[in-house]
C-alpha cells in the first residue's frame, strides 16, 4: 500500500509554499504503533483537514506537529517533520518555543479561569512578545479581531473567559492561539462541542484565518472537512490512505477505504 | 467504485428507490420508441395515440426522480459515488424525459403522416433507425444498472452509426422532394422524425457518459464521435444536386 | 435462540404488564427498595443517637466546669502576720484563717482550720499578691473573690448527696452547715469560669485551666503546618506532575498511602527514638510535638494535594502547553492555583486530625505536669488532648467535669477548623 500521495513538483503552483513537511513519520505509544510511515506536505495559507475513524491516528499525527506528544511519557516519534525546512525534532530545538510558533486549539473550549484579556495576553507575556501595557492591549485587540470576537467582548475584557458562550469560548481559544503570532494553527476537532450556529461562525473564522496562517484541522465531520478545507488527508489504522484536494476526495476518492468512510459504508 | 452497503440501511433503500424509478422510466421510454416506430410503419393511429398518452407517465416519473434526488441530497448529504449517483440519476432522468418527448412527437407526426401518400421505404428505414437507438438506450441503461463502463463506451461509439443513418435519410428525403413537390409535406415530417431519432441517440450517448462518470468519477474528455455532415449539405454538394 | 426457547407469554411481542407475574415483580422490587431505605435510615439514626449520647454526656458533665463557685471575703491584713518590710514573706495562711474566724467568731481553732479549707489554696497567694503590689494595705482589709476548694465547689453545684451517711462523704455535717451559712450571707457566687482557658494546669481542680495546653497545641500545630504544608505540596507536585511513571513511583505511592494508615503511636515511637534519642531535643516541647504531628500529617496532605491536582482538568494543562508554556509555568501558573482550595481543605482536615492526636505526644513527654504557659515552642508543655488525658487520670471529683469541659473545648476547635475548611472550599472552588 502506498501511503505517500503528495503532489508532484509540477502540481505545486506558485504561492503554494510547503509549510510543514512530514516524511515517513512513525509514532509509538509503548509497544503500540499509532502512526505508520506517514508523509504529507502541509501548504502555507491553506486549510488541511485530517479525517478518519476514531483511533486512526489523525489526532496523534496532529500533535506531532507541535510536539504535544512529548508530554506523554511512553510516546516515541521517528521520521522527519520540518517547519519551514527546519527539523522540529532536532536536539537543539526548544519544544516550548515551537508551540508558540505552532498554535493549537482543542476539542473542548478550554479558556483559563481568568479574564478574557488575560487569556489572550498570556502567550505573548510568557514569550516576551510584549514589553508594556500598551503593547499588550494592542496584541490582545488584534488577536480578538483575528478571532472575530472583538466586537462581542470589547466592553467586558475583564470578565472571566468562562462566562462566555461555548462558541465564544472556542473563538477566545483561537484568539489565545493566534496571539503569539504562530505560523501554523492546529485544531483538534474544534467544533465537536459547539452548536451548528457556533460551528458555522468558527468555520467562517477558519476560512478567514487562512489568509494569514496555515491551518490544520482534525474533524469527525466529513461535511466540515468539505466545507472548510482545501486539502484533505484520510487516515485509517495509523496509515495515511489518501491525501489530495478536498473536492477530489469528496467526489472521486481513489482508494476504496476512503470511499467507504466518506460515504458511510461498511468495509 | 464501491458497492458496499451503507451503515445506515435507510440510505441504501433511498438510493435503490430512486434507481428503480429511473429503470422503470427507461422501460417506459424504450417501449415508447419501439411502439412509435411500429405505429409509423404500420400507420397504426391507435398505437400512436397510446404512445402520446403514455408520455404523461414518463413526465410524472421524471418529476418523481427529481423529488427523490432532492430529498436524498437534503437528508443524506451523499458524497463520492453516492453523490455521483444522485447527480447522474437527475441527468439520466432528464435525458429519458427528452427521449420520451421525441417519441411522443414521432407518434404525433405519424398520425399526420397516416393521411398522406406513402414515401417508399421511409417507414422501414425510420423504424430500423429507431430500433438502433432503442438498442443503444437499452444498452446504456444496462450499463447503468451493471455499472459497466465498457458497455457505456460502446454505446457512445454506436452513435456514429445513427448519425450516418440520419445523413443517408436526409439525402433520400431531399431526393424525394426534388422528384415530386407534393411529397414535400410528408418528407418534412419524416425528416423531423429522423432528426428526433437522431437526437434520441444523442441522449442515449449522454446517458452512457453519465454511466462513465458514475463509475470512474470522470466525464469522458475527448468529444464524442460526430458524423453529422448534414449541416454541411448545400455547401458545394448542393451545387451538384 | 429459537422462538420456542422464549417463555410462553413472550412468544408474542406484547408482554402483559398487568399480569400477576408482572405485578409480583414490581411488588418485590418495591419491597427490596423499602428495606434498603429503612436499613439506611436506621443506620443514620443510630449514628445520630450515639453522637447525641456523647454530646449529652459531655455537655451535662462539662457544663458544671463552665461555672466555678467563688467566695467573696474581706480579709484583714494584720501586721503581726505580715512584715511591712518584706510583705512577700508573710504568713498569709494565718491571714486567711483570721478572716474566716471573723466570719465565724464562735469557732474554735480546729474548726477555724477546717473553715480555711473552704477557700481554695490560691486564696493566700491572691492576698499576698495584692499586698506585695500595695504594701499600704497592711493593717487594712483586702476584699478578695477566690474560688472555693473542690469539695465545696461540688457541694455548691449539688454534687454532694447530703442525705447519705457522713462517713461516705468528703464533708462532715458541720462543714456543710458552715458553707450553707456562708451562702446565706451572700458571700458565695458562681460566675463564668474564665479560668478554664486563662489559667494553667494545677493540682487543685478549682484552679486548673487549659491555657498552657491551648498554647502548646497551637505551637505544635504551627510547627506541624510550617513543615508539612510546603513539604506535602512539594511532594504532591513532584509525584503528580514531574515524576516518571515507573516501578519506583508506584512503590512510593503505595508507601505514602500506607503511611497515612500507620497507627499514630508508631510515629510517637519514631519521634522518641529519633528526635529525643539521636538529636537530643527537649522532652515535652511543642516543637518536637509539631515535628511528630508533621510526620503524621504529611501523608494526608500529600494524598489530598495529589487528588486536588488530579482534579484540575487536563484541558487546562493542554491549553497552557498549547500556547507554549513550560512545564513549570503550567504547574505554578495554572494547575496549582486551581488546586489550592482542595489542597487547603485537605491540609486543614489533616491539621484537625493532628490537633486531636494523643498517643505520639504521650510518648515524647507532652503529658508532663506543667503549670506555666510555654513562652517558646521549645519549652515543655502539654497539648489539649494530653491535658485531657492527664485530667481524666486525676482522682479529684472536680477534674471529672473539667475533663468533659476540656473535651468540649477541643471539639470546639475541631469544629471551627472544619468549618474553615468548608468555607474555603465553597468560597474558592471553581467549576468547569
Low-pLDDT residue intervals, each spanning 5 or more residues of chain B: 236-241
CATH class of chain B: Mainly Alpha
Distance between the termini of chain B: 53 Å
Characterize the biggest β-sheet of chain C: 3 strands, antiparallel
Report the mean per-residue pLDDT of chain C as an integer: 87
How many distinct helices of chain C? Answer: 16
Give me the secondary-structure category of chain C.
mainly alpha
Architecture per CATH nomenclature, i.e. the level-2 architecture of the largest domain in chain C:
Orthogonal Bundle
Oligomer: heterotrimer
Write down the CATH topology of chain B: Methane Monooxygenase Hydroxylase, Chain G, domain 1
Number of strands of chain C: 3
Outline of chain B, from the CA principal axes? Answer: elongated
Task: Work out the count of structural domains of chain C.
Answer: 2
Low-confidence stretches of chain C: none
What can be said about the biggest beta sheet of chain B? none
Give the total of beta strands of chain B: 0
**What fraction, in percent, of the residue positions of chain C are helical?**
55-70%
Structural class of chain B: mainly alpha
What this model shows, in words?
The complex is a heterotrimer of chains A (267), B (241) and C (432). Chain A is α/β, with parallel strands linked by helices and 267 residues long. Chain A has a domain at 16-110 and 184-262: 3-Layer(aba) Sandwich (Rossmann fold), CATH 3.40.50.300. Chain A has helices at residues 58-65, 95-101, 116-126, 133-146, 150-153, 166-178, 196-209, 222-228, 246-251, 256-262, and strands at residues 18-29, 32-43, 47-51, 75-83, 86-87, 102-105, 184-188, 214-218, 231-236, 239-245. Chain A has a 6-stranded mixed β-sheet with strand order 6-7-8-3-9-10, sandwiched between helices. Chain B has a single domain (2-233), classed as Methane Monooxygenase Hydroxylase, Chain G, domain 1. Chain B has 7 helices and no strands. Chains in contact: A-B, A-C. The A-C interface holds A 66, 68, 71, 73, 96-100, 103-106, 108, 110-113, 122-123, 126-127, 162, 173, 176-177, 179-180 and C 244-245, 313, 315-316, 318-326, 329, 334, 338, 430, 432.
List the helices and strands and how they pair.
The complex is a heterotrimer of chains A (about 270), B (about 240) and C (about 425).
Chain A: E1 18-29, E2 32-43, E3 47-51, H1 58-65, E4 75-83, E5 86-87, H2 95-101, E6 102-105, H3 116-126, H4 133-146, H5 150-153, H6 166-178, E7 184-188, H7 196-209, E8 214-218, H8 222-228, E9 231-236, E10 239-245, H9 246-251, H10 256-262
Parallel strand pairs in A: 3-8, 3-9, 6-7, 7-8
Antiparallel strand pairs in A: 1-2, 1-4, 4-5, 9-10
Helix pairs in contact in A: 3-4, 3-6, 4-6, 6-7
Chain B: H1 9-42, H2 45-76, H3 80-113, H4 122-146, H5 149-179, H6 184-216, H7 237-240
Helix pairs in contact in B: 1-2, 1-3, 1-4, 2-3, 3-6, 4-5, 4-6, 5-6
Chain C: H1 20-62, E1 70-76, H2 92-103, H3 109-116, H4 122-133, E2 141-147, H5 150-156, H6 173-184, E3 188-189, H7 195-198, H8 211-242, H9 247-259, H10 264-278, H11 286-311, H12 314-322, H13 327-355, H14 359-363, H15 384-393, H16 397-428
Helix pairs in contact in C: 1-16, 2-3, 2-4, 8-11, 8-13, 8-15, 10-11, 11-13, 12-13, 13-16, 15-16
Amino acid at each position: 500500500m502506498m501511503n505517500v500521495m503528495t503532489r508532484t513538483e509540477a502540481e505545486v503552483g506558485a504561492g503554494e509554499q510547503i509549510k510543514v513537511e512530514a516524511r515517513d513519520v512513525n509514532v509509538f505509544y509503548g509497544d503500540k504503533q499509532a502512526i505508520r510511515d506517514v508523509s504529507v506536505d502541509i501548504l502555507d495559507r491553506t486549510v488541511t483537514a485530517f479525517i478518519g475513524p476514531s483511533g486512526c491516528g489523525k489526532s496523534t499525527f496532529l500533535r506531532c506537529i507541535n510536539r504535544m506528544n512529548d508530554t506523554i511519557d511512553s510516546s516515541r516519534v521517528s521520521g522527519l517533520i520540518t517547519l519551514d525546512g527546519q527539523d522540529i525534532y532536532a536536539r537543539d530545538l526548544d519544544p516550548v518555543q515551537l508551540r508558540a510558533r505552532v498554535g493549537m486549539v482543542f476539542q473542548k473550549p478550554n479558556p483559563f479561569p481568568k479574564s478574557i484579556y488575560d487569556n489572550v495576553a498570556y502567550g505573548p507575556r510568557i514569550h516576551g512578545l510584549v514589553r508594556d501595557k500598551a503593547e499588550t492591549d494592542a496584541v490582545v485587540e488584534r488577536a480578538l479581531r483575528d478571532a472575530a470576537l472583538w466586537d462581542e467582548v470589547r466592553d467586558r475584557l475583564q470578565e472571566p473567559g468562562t462566562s462566555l458562550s461555548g462558541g465564544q469560548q472556542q473563538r477566545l481559544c483561537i484568539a489565545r492561539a493566534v496571539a503569539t503570532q504562530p505560523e501554523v494553527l492546529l485544531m483538534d476537532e474544534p467544533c465537536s462541542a459547539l452548536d451548528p450556529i457556533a460551528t458555522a461562525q468558527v468555520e467562517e473564522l477558519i476560512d478567514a484565518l487562512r489568509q494569514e496562517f496555515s491551518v490544520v484541522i482534525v474533524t469527525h465531520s466529513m461535511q466540515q472537512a468539505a466545507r472548510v478545507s482545501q486539502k484533505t488527508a484520510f487516515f485509517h489504522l495509523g496509515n495515511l490512505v489518501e491525501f489530495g484536494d478536498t473536492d477530489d476526495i469528496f467526489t472521486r476518492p481513489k482508494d476504496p477505504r476512503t470511499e467507504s468512510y466518506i460515504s458511510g459504508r461498511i468495509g | 467504485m464501491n458497492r458496499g452497503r451503507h451503515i445506515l440501511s435507510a440510505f441504501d433503500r433511498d438510493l435503490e428507490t430512486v434507481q428503480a424509478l429511473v429503470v422503470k422510466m427507461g422501460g417506459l421510454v424504450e417501449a415508447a420508441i419501439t411502439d412509435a416506430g411500429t405505429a409509423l410503419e404500420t400507420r397504426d393511429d391507435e398505437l400512436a395515440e397510446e404512445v402520446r398518452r403514455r408520455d404523461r407517465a414518463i413526465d410524472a416519473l421524471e418529476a418523481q426522480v427529481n423529488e427523490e434526488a432532492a430529498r436524498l441530497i437534503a437528508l443524506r448529504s451523499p458524497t463520492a459515488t453516492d453523490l455521483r449517483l444522485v447527480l447522474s440519476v437527475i441527468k439520466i432522468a432528464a435525458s429519458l424525459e427528452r427521449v420520451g418527448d421525441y417519441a411522443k412527437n414521432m407518434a404525433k407526426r405519424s398520425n399526420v403522416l397516416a393521411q398522406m401518400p406513402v414515401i417508399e421505404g421511409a417507414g422501414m428505414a425510420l423504424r430500423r433507425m429507431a430500433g438502433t437507438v432503442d438498442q443503444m438506450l437499452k444498452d446504456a441503461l444496462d450499463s447503468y444498472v451493471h455499472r459497466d463502463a465498457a458497455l457505456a463506451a460502446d454505446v457512445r461509439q454506436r452513435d456514429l452509426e445513427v448519425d450516418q443513418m440520419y445523413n443517408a435519410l436526409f439525402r433520400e428525403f431531399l431526393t424525394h422532394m426534388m422528384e415530386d413537390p407534393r411529397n414535400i409535406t410528408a418528407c418534412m415530417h419524416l425528416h423531423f422524425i429522423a432528426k428526433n431519432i437522431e437526437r434520441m441517440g444523442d441522449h442515449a450517448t449522454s446517458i452512457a457518459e453519465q454511466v462513465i462518470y458514475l463509475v470512474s468519477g470522470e466525464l469522458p474528455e475527448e468529444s464524442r464521435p460526430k458524423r453529422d455532415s448534414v449541416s454541411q449539405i448545400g455547401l458545394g454538394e448542393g451545387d451538384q444536386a | 435462540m429459537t422462538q420456542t426457547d422464549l417463555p410462553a407469554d413472550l412468544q408474542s411481542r406484547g408482554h402483559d404488564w398487568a399480569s400477576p407475574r408482572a405485578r409480583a415483580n414490581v411488588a418485590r422490587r418495591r419491597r427490596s427498595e423499602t428495606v434498603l431505605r429503612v436499613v439506611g435510615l436506621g443506620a443514620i439514626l443510630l449514628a445520630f443517637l450515639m453522637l447525641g449520647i456523647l454530646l449529652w454526656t459531655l455537655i451535662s458533665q462539662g457544663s458544671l466546669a463552665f461555672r466555678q463557685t467563688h467566695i467573696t471575703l474581706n480579709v484583714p491584713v494584720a501586721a503581726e502576720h505580715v512584715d511591712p518590710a518584706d510583705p512577700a514573706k508573710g504568713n498569709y495562711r494565718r491571714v486567711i484563717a483570721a478572716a474566716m474566724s471573723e466570719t465565724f467568731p464562735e469557732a474554735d481553732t480546729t474548726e477555724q482550720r477546717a473553715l480555711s479549707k473552704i477557700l481554695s489554696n490560691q486564696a493566700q497567694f491572691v492576698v499576698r499578691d495584692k499586698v506585695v503590689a500595695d504594701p499600704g494595705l497592711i493593717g487594712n482589709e483586702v476584699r478578695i473573690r477566690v474560688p472555693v476548694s473542690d469539695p465545696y465547689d461540688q457541694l455548691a453545684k449539688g454534687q454532694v448527696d447530703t442525705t447519705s451517711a457522713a462517713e461516705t462523704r468528703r464533708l462532715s455535717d458541720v462543714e456543710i452547715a458552715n458553707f450553707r451559712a456562708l451562702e446565706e450571707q451572700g458571700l458565695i457566687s458562681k460566675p463564668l469560669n474564665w479560668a478554664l482557658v486563662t489559667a494553667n494546669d494545677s493540682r487543685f481542680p478549682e484552679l486548673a485551666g487549659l491555657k498552657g495546653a491551648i498554647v502548646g497545641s497551637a505551637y505544635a500545630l504551627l510547627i506541624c503546618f510550617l513543615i508539612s504544608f510546603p513539604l506535602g505540596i512539594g511532594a504532591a507536585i513532584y509525584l503528580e506532575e514531574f515524576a516518571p511513571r515507573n516501578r519506583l513511583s508506584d512503590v512510593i505511592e503505595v508507601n505514602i498511602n500506607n503511611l497515612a494508615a500507620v497507627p499514630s503511636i508508631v510515629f510517637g515511637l519514631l519521634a522518641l527514638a529519633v528526635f529525643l534519642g539521636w538529636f537530643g531535643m527537649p522532652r515535652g516541647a511543642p516543637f518536637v510535638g509539631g515535628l511528630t504531628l508533621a510526620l503524621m500529617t504529611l501523608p494526608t496532605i500529600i494524598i489530598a494535594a495529589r487528588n486536588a491536582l488530579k482534579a484540575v482538568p487536563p484541558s487546562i494543562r493542554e491549553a497552557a502547553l498549547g500556547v507554549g508554556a513550560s512545564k513549570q509555568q503550567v504547574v505554578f501558573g495554572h494547575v496549582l492555583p486551581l488546586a489550592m482550595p482542595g489542597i487547603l481543605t485537605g491540609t486543614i482536615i489533616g491539621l484537625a486530625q493532628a490537633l486531636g492526636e494523643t498517643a505520639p505526644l504521650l510518648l515524647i513527654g507532652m503529658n508532663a505536669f506543667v503549670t506555666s504557659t510555654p513562652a517558646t515552642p521549645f519549652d515543655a508543655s502539654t497539648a489539649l488532648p494530653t491535658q485531657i488525658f492527664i485530667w481524666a487520670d486525676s482522682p479529684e471529683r472536680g477534674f471529672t467535669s473539667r475533663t468533659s469541659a476540656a473535651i468540649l473545648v477541643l471539639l470546639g476547635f475541631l469544629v471551627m477548623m472544619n468549618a474553615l475548611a468548608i468555607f474555603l472550599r465553597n468560597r474558592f472552588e471553581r467549576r468547569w
